[in-house]
Amino acid sequence: MQPTREQVAVAAFHCGAGCTLGDVISEAGLFAIGGSLTTFLAGSEFATKLFTDFLVAYMLGIFFQYFTIVPVRGMSPGKGVLAAMRADTVSIAAFEVGMFGWMTLTRYVFFPDPHRIYPNTAVFWFMMQIAMLIGWATSYPANVWLIRKGWKEKMPMYPDIEVMQAHRLPPKAA
Hints:
The chain is mostly helical.
């Protein structure tokens, strides 16, 4: 069955929740640690940020997806982790591609040295919000594909649109 656009949108928001939370934790943590360690990890500060943002977002995304899939499918914990990885890897990667693309433009085009922005500024988080919107948009097609393949669960809708449509009252007479 074809997923509705609302079901896909909620699935993309679900993916975005893990990605966003992971990116916020990673960016704030790396900023608190300081520059020398962040440069050491991946050769450059920006590459380290992208790597750690993805890693933390991926771990949280799989964690969130696990608790969506396992109760619905009644899986064992081991199979649940593998199913969560299969369900969310493409979606998280698609979200982060959009997000990282915007943050790369932000870092090297909009705010290059010496006008860089950092996680202790409102402008940084404003640009990050735009990045999250772009990430949501780039993850939407991946979520359509994953739901169609049956790898990702349709996210529940509250109120349930199908139930509401089935019980729709006739229009009032004028």
